[in-house]
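2024-03-11 09:14:02 INFO worker-7 job=invfold-0412 stage=load source=structure_tokens
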């Protein structure tokens, strides 16, 4: 396939380009920043004209895309004013998803986030592990992700395209494993309910979703199936969320951010584990 990847210069974007290229796809990256050359075009996705044109075709780059992966965003609150996070991300995602619809790209995978389902979990979730049926935003970044999922869910009704939202948890790059030196600290990753995912496994989830497009809208959590905390998950759940129901079949180190759906439906398994 010829696949467009927005945010291709970012942490998840780089891993995704590498993965899809290794699988034999032709990949065209789109980002605000990046080195000019084959396989990359600089685009400001905040500008609808640029976005639409870039998805239609780019001289010397591509004449049409079979699928699109949308990862470009401001990836966390705090980098810019909160309102700018919301405006930037929701505008870019509307532009990308709507332009893809206009152009007729019928296989779209995009990044949502754990922030659409309770982060930083000051309120206890309804049950553990937390699955995709729970939606709860606590800041403008998370609110944007909830809005972006809603946009895709409605666009899915306007045709027969496949839209897959991937709710990534904290993405850990190959060189960032030092963080797990603190895995035994009682509060480590509390706001992430202990979850994490290696960037290369995140890219694997993208590839699996692209390979199995289903018309309509669907959402999957993307986390390592095992937790980022040293203690067993049932003890961690009791420490952080006393009284919250915990699945009777919770695995010893199973992630409290459920990955059961993506494992069952897309065959996701993690290739990397900090343990
Ligand atoms: N990193 C995480 O822990 C994490 C967790 C959950 C969800 N996500 C989501 O995953 C996606 C990728 O995150 P990341 O960690 O790779 O972020 P990143 O900041 O490393 O990369 C994002 C890229 O998007 C580009 N970009 C931003 N605005 C743009 C615009 N208007 N036009 C073109 N390019 C633009 C940036 O230049 C950057 O290269 C984002 O949607 C993010 O919200 C990330």
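2024-03-11 09:14:09 INFO worker-7 stage=emit residues=275
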């Amino acid at each position: 396939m010829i696949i467009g990847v927005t945010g291709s210069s970012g942490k998840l974007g780089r891993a995704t380009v590498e993965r899809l290229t290794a699988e034999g796809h032709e990949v065209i990256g789109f980002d605000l920043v990046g080195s000019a050359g084959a396989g990359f075009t600089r685009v400001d996705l905040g500008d609808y004209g640029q976005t639409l044109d870039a998805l239609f075709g780019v001289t010397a780059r591509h004449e049409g895309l079979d699928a699109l992966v949308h990862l470009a965003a401001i990836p966390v609150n705090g980098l810019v004013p909160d309102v700018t996070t919301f405006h930037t991300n929701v505008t870019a995602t509307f532009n990308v998803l709507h332009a893809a619809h206009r152009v007729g790209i019928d296989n779209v995978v995009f990044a949502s986030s754990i922030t659409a389902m309770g982060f930083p979990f000051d309120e206890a979730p309804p049950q553990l592990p937390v699955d995709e049926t729970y939606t709860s935003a606590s800041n403008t970044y998370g609110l944007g992700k909830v809005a972006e999922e809603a946009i895709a869910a409605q666009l899915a009704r306007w045709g027969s395209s496949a839209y897959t939202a991937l709710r990534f948890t904290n993405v850990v790059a190959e060189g960032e494993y030092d963080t797990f030196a603190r895995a035994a600290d009682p509060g480590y990753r509390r706001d992430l309910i202990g979850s994490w995912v290696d960037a290369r496994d995140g890219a694997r989830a993208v590839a699996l979703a692209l390979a199995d497009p289903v018309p309509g809208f669907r959402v999957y959590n993307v986390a390592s199936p095992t937790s980022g905390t040293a203690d067993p998950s049932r003890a961690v759940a009791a420490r952080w969320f006393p009284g919250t129901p915990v699945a009777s079949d919770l695995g010893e180190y199973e992630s409290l951010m459920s990955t059961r759906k993506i494992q069952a439906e897309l065959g996701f398994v993690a290739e990397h584990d900090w343990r």
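2024-03-11 09:14:09 INFO worker-7 stage=report msg="The helical segments are 11-22, 48-56, 82-103, 140-155, 199-211, 233-240, 260-266."
2024-03-11 09:14:10 INFO worker-7 job finished
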